[in-house]
Amino acid sequence: MTSSKIASHFAELLDFLPDVLAWVKDRQGRYLWVNRAFLVQYALDHPGENDFVTVESIRGKTDYDLSPAFLADQFRHDDEQVLAGHRIINRLERLGESQGTTVWSITDKIPVVDAKGAIIGTAGISRATGSASSVEETGHGFGPALAHMRAHFHHEISNQQLASISNMSLRAFERQFSAAFHVTPQKFLRKLRLRIASRALIDTDDTLSEIALKCGFADQSHFSREFRRQFGRTPRDYRDHYKL
Q: Tens of pLDDT along 196-206?
């Protein structure tokens, strides 16, 4: 059996997973293939745009054609990391919000290489963990801890609290969490707060100080410093750019 035949069988198999979005892009970020769940989610997030969304209608498009610019920038930044040889594993993010429901997903992205080992593109999957209030099925046994982070991200949360919720010792929790998500619990929480804040900058007219406090930062200065480190621009610049 040739490698192309094997690839086609895997692609067909991914079409049978209704809760897993899968895709392959080239080095320029253009979609080469997406699975059926991806098409369904796109149709839900873009009602009325197309009577029938197909792989052919998605192929050749980039995230800038399919998503708001501020999200497309984040996706492209991820792709550049993967094209440099890094993997993005088990990252929590808030994706489509079809039908008024906030959807939390776990996303993985890896490089695609050719027969000579050269990176020629990226591939990824994203699987829903449920709504913000329904996360019990999150993998690795960290569902309760992740649910607590999402529900109480605007408050101070210690590793000891998360360890107790997960019925683990502090040391075991920190070690196993880092092994599962490739980041410490506090860095995970900080990135979660920053992603929620990035949406608030676009979707609300709250002041930077209000967003900082609502998203669990000590003050506006702390928020701005962390935001710039993550997104490469200040919250004000980010809002001005994407509000336009």
A: 898 889 889 99
